[in-house]
């Protein structure tokens, strides 16, 4: 068990475990990635985000 809160993408349940206690699916970290002004790949992520919308 980790000490960072995690979230199920399916039913939006917050938990500390790797799997959702409600539906049993894997969870993801609920925290965003760290910001860095020297981010080499930030431009590509922004382009992909615009493309998906």
TrEMBL record:
Domain of life of the organism encoding this protein: Archaea
Keyword rRNA processing: yes
InterPro entries named among the record's database cross-references: H/ACA_rnp_Nop10 (IPR007264), H/ACA_rnp_Nop10_sf (IPR036756), Nop10_arc-typ (IPR023532)
Leader sequence segment: none
Any one Pfam family match given in the protein's UniProt record, by short name: Nop10p
SUPFAM superfamilies per UniProt: Nop10-like SnoRNP
Keywords recorded for this protein, A-Z: Ribonucleoprotein, Ribosome biogenesis, rRNA processing
Sequence similarity: Belongs to the NOP10 family.
Alphabetical list of NCBIfam families matching this protein: PRK13130.1
Protein role: Involved in ribosome biogenesis; more specifically in 18S rRNA pseudouridylation and in cleavage of pre-rRNA.
Name this protein carries in UniProt: Ribosome biogenesis protein Nop10
